[in-house]
Amino acid sequence: MENGTIYLVGAGPGSVDLLTLRAARLIGRAKLIVHDGLVDPEIFSLARPDAKLVSVAKRRARHTLPQEDINALLVREALKGHDVVRLKGGDPFIFGRGGEEMEEARAAGVRVEVVPGITAANGAAAAAQIPLTHRDHASIVSFVAGQCKGLTEQDWAGLAGKGRTLVIYMGVKTAPQIAEKLMADGLAPDMPLAVIENGARPEMRVLRGPLAALPELVEAERVKSPALIVIGEVTADIVAQGAKLAIGVEEQ
């Protein structure tokens, strides 16, 4: 029996309208969809009626399946001859652990196809009308995981500042450490930032303030994941200020 194919599919930042055509077509024909918890349920309306949906949702300190078990599940089903759509929020290769799943599949001799998705940074910033790059304000963008191991030991000097934009994924719970670390590494306490909660979704909120006030902002507004922290001059630019009027978001 011929092995199936594992499709690592990016579901985008949360709106079914932001799926790629390739992603929508694969979802529509798949008999097995293994999906993250942040995938918009509306996306499942594209699936065939007899499709089996398997949730491997992850939340902080609470995983439906450990990553190793997810890898094993994908490979096991593919070795049975089944095509598997592994549906991941955002893009599979940007903090999506798609690289690990790909490596496991290759080691087992299983074919893999990667279907890119709009990553949360692009989708959320666009929805909030915050340009990650801007000719007058930023020519460098960095993506950082805010919950990585050894956070305080890492050197973040130069990742944010004049002419640069820093986007922090998964940083809600570690907001105090992030602010302290960036200021310790030389970033000005009054550097503007935006916190985008539920980016590109109907319930999106955009909160703004200076770097030094990040912990208080997150706590006072009870920010919950999924949320991104965008740090840099682009968040205070006249374009971003105009977005407040356009989408009715909050500003601190």
From TrEMBL:
Q: Which GO terms describe its molecular function?
A: uroporphyrin-III C-methyltransferase activity
Q: Which residues cross the membrane?
A: none
Annotated Tetrapyrrole methylase domain ranges read: 5-214
EC identifiers of the protein: 2.1.1.107
The protein's matches in CDD domains, at most eight in alphabetical order, are given as: SUMT
Q: Which UniProt keywords apply?
A: Cobalamin biosynthesis, Methyltransferase, Porphyrin biosynthesis, S-adenosyl-L-methionine, Transferase
Q: Which InterPro entries match?
A: 4pyrrol_Mease, 4pyrrol_Methylase_sf, 4pyrrole_Mease_sub1, 4pyrrole_Mease_sub2, CobA/CysG_C, Siro_Cobalamin_biosynth, Uropor_MeTrfase_CS
Q: What class of enzyme is it?
A: transferase
What PROSITE patterns would the database entry show?
SUMT_1 (PS00839), SUMT_2 (PS00840)
The metabolic or biological pathway listed in the UniProt record of this protein is:
Cofactor biosynthesis; adenosylcobalamin biosynthesis; precorrin-2 from uroporphyrinogen III: step 1/1; Porphyrin-containing compound metabolism; siroheme biosynthesis; precorrin-2 from uroporphyrinogen III: step 1/1
GO process terms (BP)? cobalamin biosynthetic process; methylation; siroheme biosynthetic process
Q: Does the record carry Transport as a key word? A: no
Q: Which family does it belong to?
A: Belongs to the precorrin methyltransferase family.
What protein name is recorded for this chain?
uroporphyrinogen-III C-methyltransferase
Question: Which organism is the protein's source?
Answer: Alteraurantiacibacter aquimixticola
